Amino acid sequence: MENGKLRGTSLPGSGVRRFLGVPYGASTAGEHRWRPPRPATPWKGTRDATAFGSVSWQVPVAPNSLYAGGEQNFSEDCLNLNIWTGAEGETGRPVMVWIHLGAFQFGSANNPMYDGERLAAQGITLVSINHRLGRLGFLAHPELTAESGYGGSGNYGLMDQIEALRFVSRNIAAFGGDPQNVTIFGVSAGGDSVHKLRCSPLAAGLFHKTIAHSGPGVAPAINGPGHPAYVSTLAAGEEAGAQLLTSLGVNSITEARALSPESILAAGIARAKGDWSSDTAPGPGLSVHRYDTGYPVIDGYVLVEPEQRTFMEGRAADVPSIVGNVTNEQPGIRYLTSVAAVKRYLSETFGALADTAFELYPAHSDAEARQASLDLLGDEIFILSSWNAAMLHSSTLTAPVWHFRFLREPPVEGDVAEKDYARAFHGADVLYVFGTYADLEWGWTDEDRALADRMQRAWISFAKTGDPTDGGTIQWPAFRSSVRMSKLWDVSDGLGDISDPAKVAFWEKYRASSKFAN
């Protein structure tokens, strides 16, 4: 490869070679903090690639969370990726590039949940990438905008992802991968990243197929108070960035670059007040309120407009795609705590459709408000986004798109923070696609193993050919706006619609009447 030789690991039994912690970018510390990534520096001799590299500074989730991956060794020298591939001398292997979950705030490619050995053993070259997160990856500020040369700031974590894809394009052939057959896929913030990369002019031509698991971002923009925000205007991002520097007690970006990462993560800024719970642990669907820092912005460079507009007007990357969700997208989402708060949120968000929303997501007591708001927000943030992406893709683009829902409830056991309400939890489908469910000592059945086999065959077939039906052995018709058929992954697979007809009609009416708020 371009920067030097690597020493990886040959995994016994599978024939897979693994290379961990491979640099694709240089350090982002010091004067390079809050700047676009730079290519990695070449090295002399043979670099050891047998252990994971550093990951972005973050506030990790509880160690017993479903989403904890043992994230440690935090560093601003974190632009590295991991590769699982076949035997030396193999060529032309389809490439799948994975983007991890974490609300753009936490997580890493090093999480055992994303171990690529099982997919690589079936002919895939699997790449997983680390990138900058939170305030170190997405800070916008007027000074940063002025110095950028492109009139924007923020989105450094997305630029990292694009730099990683450029690295893959230049180097993956050295690992047996085909740079002309690259599928990007991810879950939650990783799924949202997939949508954003499809909409970014900087990522054009760097991938050929996409899969977004539970990716927000293509839902109509929301104005509700405290609503989790995965993108904002540059002006709002700059305002939040200025508030952060004030909280840090510094007067310039130069001074902020001299601060420790820990102090930047620990600083508090004023946030919108509202009716939202404050006792939930950070999870993949939970962000701080809309005007906090650390999230993507419409900067006019990486992202030129909201994803929905790009999809609606047919400018998203026109490539074969899969989008879908689990049935319980709720873990980690903030919830409303009273009937009055639910009604206020519905009125401010849905306007004339508020009464219909209340009928579909009723809360007749404060005790019911939590579940009602969790159900609604799970649909609004995640399920509507995937459904909307499928609808708009099928209406405005020529490449096929497939939609799925994952219904299987894994047998969660042990001291797991989300155990009492996990069900078919956010990210559960990833365990089956990667085959890493088998690494957890839960009560797996033959049905789980068969489901994982079917899903892996579909994802591998898609990566190889752009068609997930594995030569017609898996029943999964392409989604059409006129024939809205979704694959239902469960013990017994089937086909169906996104949800009950009344909710489908409501969300379609809302989608059609919504305004662009970003």
Strand element count? 15
- The sequence of SSEs as H and E is EEEEEEHEHHHEHEEHHHEHEHHHEHHEEH
Work out the radius of gyration: 22 Å
The CATH class turns out to be Alpha Beta
Q: What structural class is derived from the secondary structure elements?
A: alpha/beta
The rounded distance between the terminal residues' Cα atoms is 41 Å
Spatial sequence of strands, sheet with the most strands: 2-3-5-7-6-8-9-12-13-14-15
- Tell me the domain tally: 1
Approximate shape:
globular
The CATH homologous superfamily: Alpha/Beta hydrolase fold, catalytic domain
Counted by DSSP, the helix tally is: 15
- Biggest beta sheet attributes: 11 strands, mixed
> Strand percentage, roughly?
5-15%
Poorly predicted runs are 222-229, 278-291
Helix content: 25-40%
CATH fold category name: Rossmann fold
Integer average pLDDT: 90
